[in-house]
Amino acid sequence: MAVYAQLEQHCRRHPDRMALTVGRQRLNYGQLWRRCQQARDRINQLPLDRVSRDFELPEHARLTAICLGNHHRFVELFLTASAAPNVVAVLDPGLPAGVLQSVLQRLKPDLLILPEQRHPLYALARELGITVDCMDHPEHEVPESASLSVVPVQSAHQDDQPFLIGLTSGTTSMPKAFIRSRRSWRESLEHSQQVFSLHADMTTLAPGSMTQGIALFALLESLNAGAEFVTDGDFNVITLARRLAEGHIRRLVVVPTMIAALAVYAQNKPLQFPAVIQVVSAGAKFERHHWQQCQQLFPAANIFEYYGASELSFVSVNPLTPGNIDHAIDTVGHAFPGVEISIRDQHGHELPDGQSGQVYLRSPLICQGYLWHDETATFQQNQWGATVGDLGYLQDGRLTIVGRAGGMVVSRGHNIYLSEVERALKATGLIAEAVVLGIKDAYAGQRLVAIVQPLLDRPLTTDDLKHACRPHIGRHKIPQEIYRLQHWPLTVSGKIARKTLELWIQQHHAALQRL
Question: Boundaries of each AMP-dependent synthetase/ligase domain copy (predicted)?
Answer without folding.
Answer: 7-371
